[in-house]
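quick q for whoever's on today - can somebody do inverse folding on this one?? i tried earlier but teh output was garbage lol. tokens:
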């Protein structure tokens, strides 16, 4: 808050605040309108051209150069600020404990990106990866979608979980947790399964190799899930326990449903040229019938998952990106430190 007193002779006027908290006094969040948030990018020369953005964004996602400059660039700078200061803390802790950086190397910063199906979290994760990798220190940034840790469709069918695909129980959580722990332990070479949205399934025998990232972006529906209670005296951990910075992409449920249906139509249009596409089987349906089916899938699977599992994790995020009906980010909420 600015001082209402007039500055005395020789005094300097304090710089004008670019952001203000709109949360209740003592509340845990800062809420920043987009117009104010965009000023935080300053004079950074970093940008992404239209072709790069079109390559990175999801089907039917309207994200453009203005969104990158006004929203994602300041966000990438905030993440880099956290990484820089974690590095200082790592050095200070090593000195305090009398440890050598050679024997206790710095571990990767893990950034979680969460939100509903079709809300735009994949676009957010890809843009952050690109911006962070192009930053001043050019860190090695790797993006891992947690879709790769879904059980294969055959396994889901065998377990009666096909109608629960995307729910926490449809993932190989042990493998996902083991992967995250390996990365956070500083293991230099790890690998992940690969999921294909064209096949709507895990790609058999294919794995992505990951080598010593400086930043790992973990994108998925359930990355902010808390640990579940263990049996008896056993304690349990969750991947969220190893996430250093997290982003939740948020919007009204009705808007997300509309975007989900629109995206299903976009997938079906693409299936015309992809013989192996899962959506090829629906090419014969009329638009009305296909739209009805998409709404049924939303109501039966995605909406319950959003309400029961995904939305309750929103308050656990470091940053919440709030979208309006036009799919554009309107406000940014940041957890206070």
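ok took a stab at it. sequence:
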């Amino acid at each position: 808050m600015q001082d209402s007193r007039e500055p005395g002779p020789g005094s300097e006027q304090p710089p004008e605040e670019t952001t203000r908290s709109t949360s209740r006094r003592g509340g845990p969040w800062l809420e920043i309108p987009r117009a104010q948030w965009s000023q935080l990018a300053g004079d950074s020369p970093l940008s992404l051209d239209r072709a790069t953005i079109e390559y990175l964004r999801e089907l039917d996602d309207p994200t453009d150069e203005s969104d990158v400059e006004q929203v994602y660039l300041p966000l990438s700078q905030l993440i880099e600020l956290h990484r820089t200061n974690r590095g200082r803390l790592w050095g200070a802790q090593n000195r305090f404990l009398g440890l050598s950086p050679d024997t206790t190397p710095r571990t990767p910063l893990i950034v979680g990106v969460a939100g509903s199906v079709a809300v735009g979290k994949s676009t957010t994760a890809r843009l952050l990866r690109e911006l962070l990798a192009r930053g001043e220190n050019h860190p090695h940034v790797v993006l891992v979608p947690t879709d790769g840790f879904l059980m294969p469709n055959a396994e889901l069918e065998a377990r009666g979980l096909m109608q629960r695909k995307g729910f926490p129980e449809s993932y190989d959580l042990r493998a996902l947790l083991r992967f995250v722990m390996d990365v956070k332990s500083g293991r230099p070479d790890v690998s992940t399964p690969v999921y294909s949205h064209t096949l709507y399934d895990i790609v058999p025998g294919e794995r992505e190799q990951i080598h010593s990232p400086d930043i790992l972006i973990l994108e998925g529906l359930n990355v902010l899930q808390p640990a579940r209670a263990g049996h008896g005296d056993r304690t349990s951990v969750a991947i969220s326990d190893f996430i250093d910075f997290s982003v939740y992409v948020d919007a009204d449920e009705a808007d997300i449903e509309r975007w989900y249906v629109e995206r299903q139509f976009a997938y079906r249009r693409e299936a015309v040229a992809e013989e192996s596409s899962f959506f090829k089987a629906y090419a014969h349906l009329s638009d009305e019938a296909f739209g009805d089916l998409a709404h049924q899938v939303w109501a039966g699977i995605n909406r319950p998952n959003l309400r029961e599992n995904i939305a309750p994790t929103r308050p656990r995020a470091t940053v919440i990106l709030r979208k309006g009906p036009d799919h554009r980010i309107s406000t940014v909420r940041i957890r206070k430190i």
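fwiw The chain has a mean pLDDT of 90. also The chain has eight helices and nine strands. so keep that in mind when u check it
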